[in-house]
Design goal:
It contains ten helices and ten strands. By secondary structure, it is α/β, with parallel strands linked by helices. It has one domain: 2-enoyl-CoA Hydratase, Chain A, domain 1 (Alpha-Beta Complex). Strands 1-2-3-5-7-10 form a six-stranded mixed β-sheet, with helices on both faces. Strands 4-6-8-9 form a four-stranded mixed β-sheet. This is Crotonase/enoyl-CoA hydratase family protein.
């Protein structure tokens, strides 16, 4: 591991922390390390708390890769979609403690969790793909449809509207906001609550509830691999 993602095992939970530069960019290496951490959490049978650095969960995919070529961008987006699929079907509860801004793939991480906490403050949360000229990929649309409230879906996906943490609750990106100093303590309390669940029943029920969605998401990921990723210039 390149130590872009840190794993800390506690009582009944594990904290996975993304630490990759100023914007916590989601790169191939970050995705690989998150997957390694998820493997470890599964081995340890720990509820997962995924978080970022102070002020930011993630600003999205690594721009160095996204601007390298369309094929390079497509490969990274595909791996990111597969990570979302894994999080959404993960046998153990997944909590995202959003430590600030969550943009593009950062926001999709929120949409890929079982429970999402945000913090009060001047932070932006949302999907800016259309704003930067990227036609939203099929998997992204599927994930957004699954979590966002219907009145906010078009505003978020088609119009690239960004939200404050408070408005992100109404939109469906996060479940609850707390003061910054309460973020991890609250996430830990939620993890302890989830730890009281029968985790086998949780895993089986999650897959039943999300069966149709997960099948559609996999079809969308496969379709994205066949289609060209589209970027437009103004």
């Amino acid at each position: 591991m390149n130590n872009l993602v840190h794993y800390s095992s506690e009582d009944n939970y594990a904290i996975i922390t993304i630490k990759n530069g100023k914007v916590n960019a989601i790169s191939h290496e970050v995705i690989a390390e998150i997957n390694e951490c998820l493997d470890k959490a599964l081995e340890d049978e720990k509820v997962v708390i995924l978080t970022g650095q102070p002020g930011i969960l993630s600003g999205g995919y690594d721009l160095k890769v996204m601007t390298q070529s369309l094929d390079a961008a497509k490969e990274l987006v595909s791996k990111g979609s597969e990570l979302s699929h894994r999080l959404l079907s993960f046998p153990l509860p997944v909590i995202v403690a959003c430590s600030g801004h969550a943009v593009a793939k950062g926001a999709f991480l929120l949409l890929s969790a079982d429970y999402r906490l945000g913090i009060d403050g001047d932070f932006k949360i949302g999907l800016n793909e259309v704003m930067i000229g990227m036609t939203m990929h099929n998997a992204g649309i599927a994930i957004a449809k699954n979590k966002l409230t219907s009145v906010y879906l078009d505003r978020s996906v088609n119009n690239a509207e960004m939200y404050s943490p408070k408005d992100a609750v109404a939109a469906g990106f996060i479940d609850k906001t707390v003061p910054q100093e309460h973020l991890l303590p609250t996430a830990i309390k939620v993890a302890q609550m989830f730890g009281q669940l029968n985790l086998k029943a949780h895993a089986a029920t999650k897959l039943k509830v999300r069966k149709e969605f997960l099948e559609n998401l996999q079809l969308s990921i496969d379709l994205d691999k066949k289609e060209e990723l589209s970027f437009s210039k103004k």
